[in-house]
Structure formats: C-alpha cells, structure tokens
Amino acid sequence: MVEFTHIEEGHVRMVDVTGKPDVSRSATAEGKIYLSSETLAAIRDGTGLKGNVLATAEVAAILAVKETSAIIPMCHPLPIGGVSVGFIETDEYINVTVTVKTYGKTGIEMEALTGVSVALLTIWDMVKSAEKDEGGQYPTTRIEGIRVLSKEKGTA
Amino acid sequence: MVEFTHIEEGHVRMVDVTGKPDVSRSATAEGKIYLSSETLAAIRDGTGLKGNVLATAEVAAILAVKETSAIIPMCHPLPIGGVSVGFIETDEYINVTVTVKTYGKTGIEMEALTGVSVALLTIWDMVKSAEKDEGGQYPTTRIEGIRVLSKEKGTA
Amino acid sequence: MVEFTHIEEGHVRMVDVTGKPDVSRSATAEGKIYLSSETLAAIRDGTGLKGNVLATAEVAAILAVKETSAIIPMCHPLPIGGVSVGFIETDEYINVTVTVKTYGKTGIEMEALTGVSVALLTIWDMVKSAEKDEGGQYPTTRIEGIRVLSKEKGTA
Amino acid sequence: MVEFTHIEEGHVRMVDVTGKPDVSRSATAEGKIYLSSETLAAIRDGTGLKGNVLATAEVAAILAVKETSAIIPMCHPLPIGGVSVGFIETDEYINVTVTVKTYGKTGIEMEALTGVSVALLTIWDMVKSAEKDEGGQYPTTRIEGIRVLSKEKGTA
Amino acid sequence: MVEFTHIEEGHVRMVDVTGKPDVSRSATAEGKIYLSSETLAAIRDGTGLKGNVLATAEVAAILAVKETSAIIPMCHPLPIGGVSVGFIETDEYINVTVTVKTYGKTGIEMEALTGVSVALLTIWDMVKSAEKDEGGQYPTTRIEGIRVLSKEKGTA
Amino acid sequence: MVEFTHIEEGHVRMVDVTGKPDVSRSATAEGKIYLSSETLAAIRDGTGLKGNVLATAEVAAILAVKETSAIIPMCHPLPIGGVSVGFIETDEYINVTVTVKTYGKTGIEMEALTGVSVALLTIWDMVKSAEKDEGGQYPTTRIEGIRVLSKEKGTA
C-alpha cells in the first residue's frame, strides 16, 4: 500500500520530524538542457561567454537550494551545510549536477532537485536570445532527465 | 551569429528594456513527471489524495510564477496579470501546463517555465514517501520534457 | 448566485486582469489587539517603549503590504504607491489602521488587510514577555475585528 | 513590573537565546472568518469549491509559518519540524486551527498565530468576489478571535 | 527647513507617489572594498578566480537591486528595466559601479546603492578565507566611499 | 599562499561545513553615514524624527541579518540567536554598530556586516528628501568605514 506522508485524512500537512535524530545527509541530482548546436558552439568557444553563463547558473542554483523550503510548500527547512554544482557539455546538451549536504532530521533530495531545476532554467534564460527563432518560439530548447542520482545518510 | 543579450564585453547584465512598449503577452509551458504505476493509481482513485496533490502543486506554481525574477538572476520583474495551471494524468506520468499573462515590456516564458518546474517538483515532494524504494532511492521518478508550447504578443 | 473568480472548473487560478485599465485605488483596513491593562499602561507611560513597539509594528506592516502577493497565493502583484499606518490606544486594546494606495488593475484591500494583520502580530510579539502568565500562556491577548473600512477607485 | 524583552534602553533588539537549550516545543492557535451565509453555503455544497478554498488556505498557512521570522521583525528563526491546519465550518464562520512543532531554543506561538492569520486572509481572498456588495465593500466579512489555544514545552 | 517625506506627525509612512507620472529614470552608484595586496594579486593573476569572484558579485548585485523594496522599508517597488555592474581593480581596492534603469514614478538611487553594497559584501564573503588573519580577524578589509555618482530623469 | 574556500577548480561552491561542531559565536561590525549638518541637527533636535529614523534602521538591520544567506550567495544559513544595533551621532555622521550571536558551525561576520550596510542604506532612504540638492543629487551623503570590529568563538 503506497503511503503519502504529507496528506492525512484529506488534508495536507508538513510531517512532524522533530523526534528524528540529526544525521549527516547528502543528495545528488542531475538534469539536461538541450540547446541548438550554434548556441553550444558559442558557449564552447567563448571563454567569457561560457564563464558567465555557467557562473550565473551556479549562483542561481546555490541560492535556490537555500530557498527550497520557501518554494516547495511541504518541504522542511534544513540547515544547508554545503552545495556544489558541476556541468558537462556535449554536442546536444549541457548536463547539470548538484550535490547538497546537511546535518539534519530529513532527506535533502528536494533541495538538490530544486538546485538542478533552477540552474537549467537560468541557462535557458541566459541563452534565450540565441535560441529563439524568428517567430520568438523555441524549436530546440527543452529540459530533460531531472532525477536523483544518489542519496546518502550517516548514522546518528 | 548567435546573440546573448544578457552578456556584454564579458559581463552579465540585465538588459535595459525601459524603452520598449507595454503590450499584452502570454506564454504556455509544459512538462511531465514520471511516477510508479502504484502512485499514479492511488492518485487516480483517491479523490482527497488527488485534490491535495494537485492543489498544492497549483498553489506552489502560481506563487513561483510571481517569484520568477527573484529566482532567475537576469529576469525582469513583470506585472503578472493571470496564471492558470492544468494537469493531464496518464498511466505513466502527470503532465503539467502553465499559462501566464502579462501586460509588459518583455516576454513571459521564463515565468511559465518556472511555474511548470515548481509544479513538477511539488508533485515529487508530495508523493516521495510512495516513490522511494527500500534504500531510499527513486527508481522511477523523473521529470522530462519541460518546454515552451507557445508565446504570444499583442500590438502596442 | 455567488461567484468565486479564483476557482474555475475545479481548479484555482490567478484571474487574468491584463485587460483592465490602470486606475488610482485605495483601501483602508483596521483591527484590534486586546492586551492586559498592565501592558497598555506601560506602553502609555513609557515614551521609549511606546515609540519602539509602534514603530516596529509600522515598519513590519509597510514591508508586509509590499509582500502581500508573495504571502496570499492568488493575489496579483500591484505597484504599491503609498502606505500609512495609524494607532489608537484605549484601556483595553490598540487599534491599528492601514491605508494603501496604488495605480493599478485591481483592488488593494488584501494589501491593507495583510498590513493590519502583520502590525497586530508584531505588537503581540513585542509585548509577549509581558502578556504571558506563569505557565507561558496568554490569558488576555487576542486579535479581533480585522475588517475593510473603505475601498475607493478612480476613473480610468 | 511588566517586562519587554525585545526593548532595552530605548532600543529594539532581538533577544539573545543562544545559551538556551534545544527542547521540543509546540503551539496551537486559532481564529475565525465571518462570511455571508451564501458564501458559506456555496463552500459547504461545492466539493471542488471547498477543496480549493481550504487547500489554498492550508498551503498558504504552512508557507507563512516557515516565513514567520522574515515577517515579524524580532522573531527568532526556528527549525520548523511539523505543521498541521484544521478547519471547522459553521453557519456563520470558518474556524482555522494551526499547530506548529519545533525542536529549538524559544517558543513557537508567533509561527502558529502567523499561520492562522494567513489562512484567514487567504480564505478572504479566495471568496472576495462573492463577499463584495455592489459598491465593492464587505458588509459581512471580518476576522475575529485570533488567539493562542495552547503552548507546550518538553524538557532538555 | 529640511524635509523628511517618509515621516509625518511622528509616524513613518511610505509616501504616496500614485499621482506622479511614469518617466524614464536612471541612477549610478559606486563603492570600494579595500583588500590585502596578496588577495588583490591572486584575483589579478587567477583568471578562474577573478571570473568567479566578480561574476558572483554581479549576480548578487542584480538580484539585490530587484529586492531593494523588500530590504529598505520605505522604498517604493519600481519596475527594474535594466542593471549593469562594472569593476575597476587597483593595487589597494576593487571599485564597484552599478547603474539601474526604470520607467517609473520615483527615483531609483536606493536600488543602485543597494546593488553596490551587496556586490561589495559578496566580494568580502568570496575572499574572506584569504583576508582573515590567524586570530580570525580582518586587519585590512573594509568598505569605503559608497555614494551616488549621478541620477537622471526623463520627461513625462 | 592565499586560499579562497568558496572557489575550487574554477567553480564557485558553498563550502561543506556539516562536519564542524556547533559553538557559540558572535561578531560586531560598524559603519558610518555622512550627512549634511542640517539633517544631523534636525535628527538631533526632533525627538519623533530621531526615533523614527533610527527605529526604522534598527528594524531593517535586524530583518537583513536574518536574510543574509538569501542575499550573499555563498553564505551558510545560521540560526540567528540575537541581534542588537547601536547608534552614535556626531556633527558629521551617524555611526552604526551591529552585534550578532549564533550557536552554529561557521562565523557570523557577514550577517553583522549585512546588518550594518542595511541600517546605513535605510538611514539614507529616510533622510533622502533632506539630503538632495536642487538638481536631485547628493553632494554630502556617503557611506564609509564598514568593517568588522571583532569576532568571537566559544569552544565546542
């Protein structure tokens, strides 16, 4: 029988975790943004361009990780202890990986997923003038494969 | 030659749009979250459950649309005039569509994309106790196909 | 037949107001916080005390007015043009009045009501060490009578 | 002699609680919103309507509980461990109850009171098109009786 | 006779600007952060280092410009139309310049000053491990000369 | 060799502090705002004026201290335990001092510096109608000398 801990007797609630021990926890999530080959080539070749697109995405992701419990309604606020962001560029897409660490009472995968999503949205925003066609539409741009790569938990 | 309006001479900037006219604009974006068949069946069969999962996602999406310029660094703040959220449930995934309307100086697709992303992340958070396996991992859950369906612009 | 514009076909939405004209609008709301006579006397007699309690409540109210659309999910963001806060002290309670002005597409009473509520909660917080009994409970403190006093709208 | 811990020598301050032990704490607050009998009947009879009005108020209340220390100036940030929201509908009003739990250094009643206030304001916003008279005024709508029902504290 | 428009009859208020016309406006502010010569040399010589320190400060400044009315209590929210950030490095300090543009009802210098302040604080945070002495103190680091360089206003 | 812990292999990151012990920590920062002698005299002589300018700055500073990790990208969120703000008025400037206390895993000087900066910006905003010359410029107003006065750390 599947269980939905955020819903009880027809009402949403934020589950009580006050009795759970603080333990070290980490989670890593990833996702991809598909871009036109012209945009990807321009990012690959232009040092300043690349640095600025990815640095802006990194900063946005780290800030978003810290705001997760204000964005996702039932998320518990957790003391974010560390965040790192990585990028892999291919001929078709940029892959973003976010790892988040905490020492707290509940898992931190929603923070990693929120960081990945905001990094990908920020890349989209940074390159949108290059990705739009003449009608202002986006024939190529899309975000795919947002998922949790791993979750770890220490002992109390 | 591709153009990156948010970057000039090696620095990021928020492009100056003060000289552009206010016109009515709308954008629609969509995305999917793949879930286990047990979770999708429980949502389909449980009225209270379904109402709560989707209502929470709707509210989170609408709030996120309004916060887009605080989340995506180079986004211009726009006077959000209307937001609607739609869901389609299939045997494999829930599809989310968000339409945003404004009367302003620049396009509103980043707001629609942010609304879709936050709706999908909120669904994930609401069903995560049902989606995790015994090791606390997510074998099925993933977000795919976030894209702009259409963008429209009135005349000044 | 009563109408709920924020709900359509079983879904919440933020109503589209992009087609409405910008007009000057104002709204005034009020509310009361009942306090122990000792607390009210201390506020009445202590200039520094009174200044600090009411100034903190004023500042909190003005900031909250500006954050209303981030706090109330279906509220439209409006360009806040002016806010003023007034207090009346009696032997039983402090009455708070908040007037908000805008030049926008929809009414501004939720902003005035949010300002009043936050002013009253801030007064509570500022005097809570004086209001609590030995068991840490609040035998007297309560908030009453939050309502809209008037709403006005100019012509386009 | 009444004591105002947030004020010292004519200045506001956020009281230092760093030396206090972390203990489990909970607080429950309540409040009422009076509505017209037509609005209350429509909410009672319309499943979708009721679900949406109350679900939106629940989500707004839970988010507001987490933002309390950003809204109320002298409030300490506390690690919110759990939040639940309840509603009782009568012929005259809807009563909202919010219970908040933490494991921290100071009481959590301001969070419960903020959650109640925001739930009530959100209900107002959701039904405002039905509550306004022809002149755009609110002859019936008002918020009453916001108070702390109970506060509890564990041992260190 | 000096005038304080934010204070009237002993109360703070947010001045009513709803009757003022929308005009194009811009403001430029600057400020300096003094750093140790070792830190400045490391930033000058390390391309990756310099890019990351300054890009993070730029992004933080642009986000802060948009949040000014949530940080400075009596500031009116203004539709930010464009923001650019510049840096000059010398042997003693880094100078930051922020220019903000709007099309609105009141001046935008507080936004430019807030952007400069947050850029300087972010640089401090990014280099703090290099600036601290053995006792964890900052013998050199300080922020100086935050001022408005120019303010301009178009005609209605 | 200087060390920049927020940057690793050409990428920004939020340093992992989850393994560090919680200890009591405090930091005090200060800064000055130079104002015209007319403005300083008006503040000195007008009780209501002075109370309102400084109380608004105090409240803004305390709120900003709590928002530091949302404003400065790589800052860790810390459980703020206490904040106090002090002012010294001279014939040339107002000096602001902010002391922040926490019980956490990393230093709290960025919070004290952010509090000082926001207090100074708020004073500027409160007196700006008195400081501007006929051309709308600020011949006198400037912020100087923002620095950390002391940092202390207890033992685990």
Automatic annotation (TrEMBL), chains A, B, C, D, E, F:
Record field: catalytic activity: (8S)-3',8-cyclo-7,8-dihydroguanosine 5'-triphosphate = cyclic pyranopterin phosphate + diphosphate
Q: Does the keyword Ribosomal protein apply?
A: no
What subunit structure does UniProt give? Answer: Homohexamer; trimer of dimers.
Pathway in which this enzyme or protein is active: Cofactor biosynthesis; molybdopterin biosynthesis
Protein name in the entry: Probable cyclic pyranopterin monophosphate synthase
Lineage start: Archaea, Methanobacteriati, Methanobacteriota, Stenosarchaea group, Methanomicrobia
The answer, when asked if Lyase is one of the entry's keywords, is yes
Segments forming a coiled coil:
none
**What is the E.C. number?**
4.6.1.17
Organism, per UniProt? Methanocalculus chunghsingensis
Q: What family does this chain come from, according to its entry?
A: Belongs to the MoaC family.
Q: Which residues does the entry assign to the active site, renumbered to this chain?
A: 125
Query: Which InterPro entries does the record associate with it?
Result: Mo_CF_biosynth-C_arc (IPR023047), MoaC (IPR023045), MoaC_sf (IPR036522), Mopterin_CF_biosynth-C_dom (IPR002820)
